[in-house]
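Q&A log
Question type: sequence-to-structure
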Amino acid sequence: MMPPILLLIHGFPFDASVWRTFLPYIEPYFRVLTPDLSGFGKSLAAPAASLEENADQLAAFLAEEAPAGAFVAGHSMGGYIALALALRHPQQVLGLGLLSTQTAPDSPERAAARYQTAEQVAAQGMILLAETMPAKLSADPGHTLPLREVILRQKPESAIAALKAMADRPDSTSALAAFPRPVVILHGLADAAIPVERAREMKAALPIATLTELPDVGHMPFWESPKATAAAILELL
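Response status: OK
Response body:
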């Protein structure tokens, strides 16, 4: 019997390589797909202009790789894209994993800050994000250097497009509330990038969702607590 298929959608500003250390914890249970989003990692495509465009590209990818549908888990920005995929192509999403993400849109101040960061990346390159982001992402200081290395591999134009796409994203709370298939929400209590309150708001919007909160874990639960992350995703089955 063929194992179920799991699509993992990486966050910002990373590529599919961030899943590498997590795969041994999840591959015994799924056939795992870890594509690079357009413009990131080894992708030669132009960066997507919106999260919806990313979702449509992944829907085309799933039509080839998983014609009967797949379970989908997205981290941070990847969670925004997973939500867009579930809204736009619900027949392809058998269950949804939302890791360190949110359905709430950016506040005007947050959106403006992302646009300002995009301008700074245009001027300074990826070193700006590599210097400032890693310490905010993981509660484990041992992750700072490997996160920095992944960030430095990305193209500035891809980071700029993603920052603007995230700033412009809609509120997807009602889309989540209407999603008819299993949903798991996973969030670190020490997440400095997206507060755990955002996860609790998603749970309130969809009470049948499973919410797992991880103590002493930051924004990278699949690095910081891979076993618990795998256990949460397995709740989709």
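Response note: The domain at 5-105+171-234 is CATH 3.40.50.1820 (Rossmann fold).
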